[in-house]
Structure formats: structure tokens, C-alpha cells
Amino acid sequence: MNLQQDLQQRLQKKPILLMTHLVLGYPSLETNREVIRQMAENGVDCIELQIPFSEPMADGPVIVKASQDALAGGIRVEDSFAFAEEMVREFPQVNFLFMTYYNIVFRYGLENFIDRSAEIGIKGFIIPDLPPEEGGEYLLLAANSGMAAIMFFTPTSTDERMIEVAGQGSGFIYCVARRGVTGEHTEMDENLAGYLDRCRRATELPLAVGFGITSRKDVAMLEAKADMAVIGTATIKLVDREGADSVGSFIRALAVEG
Amino acid sequence: MKKGYFGQWGGAFIPEVLHATFTEFNIAYEAARADSSFWQEYVDLMANYSCRPTPLTFAENLSDHLGGARIYIKREDLNHTGAHKANNVMGQGLLVKRMGKKRVIAETGAGQHGVATATMAARFGFDCTVYMGEEDVARQRPNVFWMEKLGATVVTVTDGSRTLKDAINEAFRDWVTSMDDTHYVMGTVCGPHPFPEMVAWFQSIIGIEVRKQIMEQHGKMPDRVYACVGGGSNAMGIFQGFLEDNDVELIGVEAGGKGIDTDQHASRMVGDRAAAGVAQGYKTMFLQDSDGQMLDTHSIAAGLDYVGVSPILADLGEQGRVRFEAATDVEVLEALTLAMRTEGIIPALESSHAFVQAIKEAPTMFRDQAIIINMSGRGDKDIFTIAHAFDDPSWKDFIIGLAEEYKTK
């Protein structure tokens, strides 16, 4: 079963899925391990494992700092693979994806990176600086390995562009809720609702949306408009503030009606 | 070949949110390029505002002193704001006007491009924000002063190595939010397409002028042309005058810092610390580790202190059309001293890199041969940096005295 089919099956049982995110090695792999355990045990459907890169151009201050600290802590790409392999084995109920920038993949060797990821049970990739125009070989290799190549919709995408991009992608579409970098809050208003309608019309793929989600109310607003709520920087901030133990109840509160 | 590629280098590795912005930008650029009145407007503006054409100076004393080839110096230092950076920003300013945008943003390393962009914004009536690494803000205070006085907002970037590459990342982060009314004035022949090609086009004014000037003064083509290479815009500017003339050797001089065999330099095409990579929107040779993380760089010249190099130059280097060399910090100060004492000119630390290699090679050549050095900028405006680099005792006394005076007020 590929990622898209898996997500669609999960959507039979609940109105909206959850995807969380963390930066590998921030603050440490030990903390990452505990955070992932709490996420997995509280019903998260997908987890983005961000392999830190020294030039995170599309990220906001929280992830920029986390990436920098992780690298200063000495994490290597090889450590990320080993850790991901362990997590996939331990939490088979979760779909793990690698999020990173293209240079990490390019330097590792595109084919090697995809093969190795497939081998350890990663389900797909999110690479914000690899547009479909530059990713021909990547898209081909990912498809051949049955890996999802996640594409982006943004509020500046025209309808034609959305159809074009969706045609290249697989797994789900990452709908960026607003302009700008990661980690800023956006209100659910008519503009956002209209944009999500446009996204829905452009593709059959599930839609994942992140816009600075912090509460059950935020998640509930997305039901019917999208398929998966993305919780990005909120958990990084939470772990900074209250430690890894606080993640479980936070996720539980997002996932459960209340 | 795929659009925006130079051999295997270049491309446009941009986040999806900028797709529409780049579509619009490409259309505006291509329309301007196809319109000969745009180029004429640019040439007229540069003549009226920035002393173009800049002279080609025959350095007779330096030539006699070295006893070899006749040395000519292209005086980009005489541009308004003191460097070739003015060419690119005024060109992009005209394009911004065409696109109807009201705000410009820029990254700056040494501050040169930031000051140039701030003057352009003042002249055209645009709002202006300049991103600058914290380390560069600390070592280039006079440029920060001028940018602010010219009406620009200078934002100090505290991420990463707090230098040029981090300022570029931050400028992109601004742009992904503000693209509707804002143009990003990339300062060099790097970044995603069409920046390398477009900035090279604006800088080609140097090569067009110098080709004519050397024929007038020397009667034939030069044997060699030297330019320093940070991102590579002044080098691309002058090299374009001679790309088709295979007998003219083109030499790009990178920052050798404390030595090419140390980890404190910024040479991408010389030495073994750089490898092919994709970052900041384009593919080129980057100084990076085996995981693909960018390395810290060092140069006495802030304007050469950058992890990547123009994809156009990476290609010309790979083809063997441009030869790359590196000059160390120590050699740079020696060359600067010689240029000042023999010719009364004060090249910027960046430009002094080109002088180093020319001074090494000129004595091995014949008197009827000519070489051209691109003096990309002037050093007198960088008095704080240069006096510091020379470790000048009387300058230090002056600064200490001035500091005391400020403290007691």
C-alpha cells in the first residue's frame, strides 16, 4: 500500500489526520526518541523527520535555530538514517517522511538517498527547494521505489499551476497556508477557505495544511476542508518550554473532540 | 541546453511559493533584454549618474617596476559608490520601475552592494531593506552608517555564520512574504535563474567598454585579463568583453585567505574543499563538508568571503576558458601597497586579489604584451578595514583617542 492509499484508508475512520514534525538532533536524538514515542502513542498519522541543513532557506526562526543547534551538536546525515530506521521499526503505525533541503540529498547521491530511505521504510520526501522543473530524475526514481514525492501548493499558485504540480506529486499535497516561512500563525478566514477549495478542486491527492496550528479548535476548523493537519513548530516550542513529556497530552488534545 | 543552465551549473531551485514571482520576473527581464531602448536608457543613466565609461588607466610605473607586460587598469573604482556594484543595481532599478514594484530588498556582505542598492532606492524612490550578517555589520560599520543615512533599513542577521550566505537566506525569507510589491536585488551573478544571466548582462557594460579602450590604447587585444572572484560579478563583467577571443587568457582570482591548504579561505575553484552542490537556489561549486553542510569561509576581503561561485564561472572554469588562482591575505596587502606607491591608486581589498596574480605574472611576459586588471572597487572608503589589516599604529591611536572623546561626552 502506498502512502496515498494508507492515508485514504485512515480517513475512513477519522475526519482529519495529524502530521507532526521535528528536527533530528534537536535538542538531541534521545529527546527526539521520547517525543516520537509520545506522538506515535497518541494517534499521529505521519511524522516529518527534518534532516538539518546549514541553509534552511524556507524555514522560520524556530526551525532555523533548531537546525543550527542540531548541527552544532554534531549530528551527521548517517545518524539521521540510523535513527529513522530505529523509529520506523519501533512505530510501524506511523508513516515517517524525510523533510530536508536538496543539497543533503544531492551530496548523498540522489539514487543512494532514495534507495536507502526505501530500504529502511521511509514513506516519502518533502524537499522545499526542489521544484518539479528541477526534480525530473528525483520524481522518476521516487516513483520507481514507490516513495511519495510531496509537492507544494501555495496561495500564489494559479489553478493551472496546482494541476501541473499535483500531476508530478504523490502521497499527499502540502498546502502552504500563507506566504512566508514556517511557524507563523494564520487565521482561518474566507481567503484561506477559498484557497483550500481551489486546492481540493485541483487534485485527488489528500491535502495536508499547516498554518501555525496550536489547538483543537484550529484542527477542527480544517475538517472537511482538508485531510491532514500539520503541526510544525508548535511541538518544537513546546518541547523547549516544557520538555518531551508534555507532547503526549498536547497531541491527544488536538486529536480528540473536546 | 535547459534554460538557466551553464553546462551542468545554475538552474532555479526555488520554493513553490516563489514560482509565480519568478514567472513574472523572467517575463520582465526577457522583455527588457529584447528592447534595445532599455539598454540605451541604462547606458545613459550610468553615464549621467555613475561616471561611465570608466577609464582604462595605463599603469606605466607599475609596468616599469615589474619589467614585463604593459599593465592596464579598468577603473570600476570610479563608479558612484566606489565599485562595479553600481552597474547591477541601477540596471535592476530600471527593471523594478518597469515591473511597477515599490520596494527593494538586498543582501550584502562587505556592505558595498547594500550601499549601492540604498543609493539606487533613494534615486528611484523605492523603500529599501538590506540584510547583513552580524559579523559583517561589526566589521563594516561605515557602510551600515551610509545605508541608514540613505534611508534604508539595515537588518542584522544573527543566524548561521552571520555572513553573506546567511544574509541571502534572510532576504529570501523576506521575499517569500513580500513578493507582490518587492523585488530582490541580488548583488552578484549567483542565485536562481535569471539572476546570474541578468546580473552578468548589466555588468557586461565593463567588458564592452574595455574592449574598445584597449584597442584604442594598445592597438590590439590584451594577452591576459585578471579579476577577483567572490560571487563573480566584476569578473563576469570584464570577461564578457573577451569570451570569444580565445587568445585572451582570462584569470579569476579567489580568496586564498590564510592559505589554500588551511581551512580559512574562500576558494571554490582552487583547492579541494569545494564540491558540486545545490543551495541558495542554484547549483554550483560550494565549500561544504561531505554531508553537504556549508563550511565557514575566511577572507581579508569581506566581499570575497562567500561559499558559492557564479554558475557561469563554474562552467567557464570547467571548460578551461577561465583559469582560477588564489591570493592570500598577506599577498593582498603587499599588492595593495605596491599599487598605492607606484600608481597612487587605492584598490579595494577585493580588487587587490586580482593585482596579486597580475603582479606575479607580468614580469614573465614581454613588453609588447598587455594585461588588464579589473579594479572592481576603491579602498579609500574602506579605511577602517584596511587600516586594521595593516595593523597601523597611528590609526589605532587615533581610534582610541576618538573613543575616549566619545566616552567622556
Report on this model:
The complex is a heterodimer of chains A (258) and B (409). Chain A has 258 residues and is an alpha/beta fold. Chain A has twelve helices and eight strands. Chain A has an eight-stranded parallel barrel, surrounded by eight helices. Chain A is globular. With 409 residues, chain B is of the alpha/beta class. Chain B has two domains: 6-47 and 85-195, 3-Layer(aba) Sandwich (Rossmann fold), CATH 3.40.50.1100; 53-82 and 204-389, Rossmann fold (3-Layer(aba) Sandwich). Helices cover 45% and strands 18% of the residues of chain B. In chain B, α4 (85-99) packs across α9. The model of chain B has no long low-confidence stretch (mean pLDDT 96).
Write out key terms for the chains shown.
heterodimer, A: alpha/beta, TIM Barrel, 8-stranded parallel beta barrel, 12 helices, 49% helix, 15% strand, globular, B: Rossmann fold, Rossmann fold, 6-stranded mixed sheet, 4-stranded parallel sheet
Short description:
Chain A has 258 residues and is an alpha/beta fold. Helices cover 49% and strands 15% of the residues of chain A.
What is the total domain count of chain B? 2
Task: Supply the number of helical segments of chain A.
Answer: 12
**How many strand units of chain B?**
14
Shape descriptor of chain A: globular
Q: How is the CATH topology of chain A named?
A: TIM Barrel
Over the alpha carbons, how many angstroms does the gyration radius of chain B reach? 20 Å
The CATH architecture of the largest domain in chain B would be 3-Layer(aba) Sandwich
